[in-house]
## 1
Amino acid sequence: MKKFLIILIMACTLSSQAQNAKITVLKQFLSDLINFDSIAFNEEQPIISISQMAHDNAAEIIKITRENIKLALIEAKSFKHCLIICEHHTLIRIVDNEDCNLSNLWGTCMPLSRAYIQRKGALSEKKDYLKNLIGRPDSKKRTMYLFN
């Protein structure tokens, strides 16, 4: 019984450390966009908290669809920062607007981007063209937040 309790305590401690590491990585990824000083994070799904902060601080918000993504990407070029959140699991920042790859499904050239994707609690970083990070056009919620 004693061994079981020790293992349980260690597992809880490691889980807590992993959650804190995830939040630290996301804070660094977005440090020039959002002030995190007085924010309480949803530790299980921090992207939900970030989505709310982005909504409260963005100069402009665009719901991305296949029909408007081309114009949204053009609009994003006139802002200092662009953050795209897909559902509650993916954060994307455009790295290079000039380096883009044509997407037949989305009907426009998609810029090189960097993302953090949360699956089954784990956070992974990916650098790829936007089309490969946001997936195929469908009913998923994709929101672009633009910051000055």
Note: The beta strands are 60-63, 81-86, 90-103, 108-119, 122-129, 142-147.
## 2
Amino acid sequence: MPARLYDVRVTSQPQPSPEHSPDYNSVSAGAASDAKAFFAAALLTFASGMVVLIGFIMAGGFGVLLGIVGVIFGLVWWKERYGRMLPRDLSAGALIALTVGSFLMFFLAAGMAA
């Protein structure tokens, strides 16, 4: 009787590598990196809204359009500067600058609206 070509017997199961274990997360670089990414996402969203709001306060509907264009250019600049929208290795200085800029825009919009 001829031997089968695909008759393969497995004597042991391969062990999963550590990067495939449930505890391993290849996306995250740690809790501090995740916190920075979260705050950067929140501040980028807030700052984008402030740019559009300032445009609306200054020039109405046309200002909204200009604000949206400004947001697009700002986000493209951010991505070019840091390589990704939410990089793993975002420096604390970049996060502080984003925070200060966001709150300056908030106070500018509040002063213009009053």
Note: Helices lie at 31-82, 92-113.
